[in-house]
Write a structure and sequence with these properties.
Blueprint: H1 3-14, H2 26-39, H3 52-61, H4 67-80, H5 84-90, H6 92-99, H7 105-123, H8 131-135, H9 142-151, H10 162-171, H11 179-189, H12 192-208
Helix pairs in contact: 3-9, 5-7, 6-7, 10-11, 10-12
The structure holds iron/sulfur cluster (SF4).
Amino acid sequence: MSRAAKSGARKKASAPAAKKPKPWTDAEVREAFERFRKANPEPKGELEHLNPFTLLVAVVLSAQATDAGVNRATRSLFLVADTPQKMLALGEEKLRDYIKTVGLYRTKARNVIALSEKLIREFGGEVPRTRPEIESLPGAGRKTANVVLNMAFGERTMAVDTHVFRVGNRTGLAPGKTPLEVELGLERVIPSEFMLHAHHWLILHGRYTCLARQPRCAVCLINDLCRWPEKTI
Ligand code: SF4
């Protein structure tokens, strides 16, 4: 090994480990969510739906697509197919026409027809209320189950999408390498009284304030609490 390479290796070995952000105290977490609540007492999701079934379909369609894009497609779709029975009557081919502006629409159309069949066959045409049952539906995963349980059935679940994942990590509220780690971390630190709306507060915070490229720290409600070293004040 050359002298330069040796010195590089020495430098690497002795480089200080990245400093972990100081965990939030219980009082800080409470303060943050009290501020979110005060600013927006009844936050709403932006995926349009009419009932648990149309919510489920909208969430399945929303994978790797924007809520606005899904809404544009489902507005006319749900006028003709707001139950599993009507979705089956519509059929996969016509369903594809309604959703062809949404990414991965062929696979999603197949899944929506298959999950409608399964709902009728195994769940009496109703969206089931447990996580394993929802996750057993074609095209539905953990995030889908969390959104449906939270928005349709009022459960205190935490769905982690790209926005919640970024906010959980960047703020230091619940750092994690995977969505599941962040989900479990958020469930651990957020007091139960805030959990019903926490998912929407964090999504909206990520979507409109803590933006991926240029976070709007100057107007951020939790600027003083955020642990991100690159935040601006
Ligand atoms: S201070 Fe900046 S980085 Fe921290 S949560 Fe607010 S917007 Fe995001």
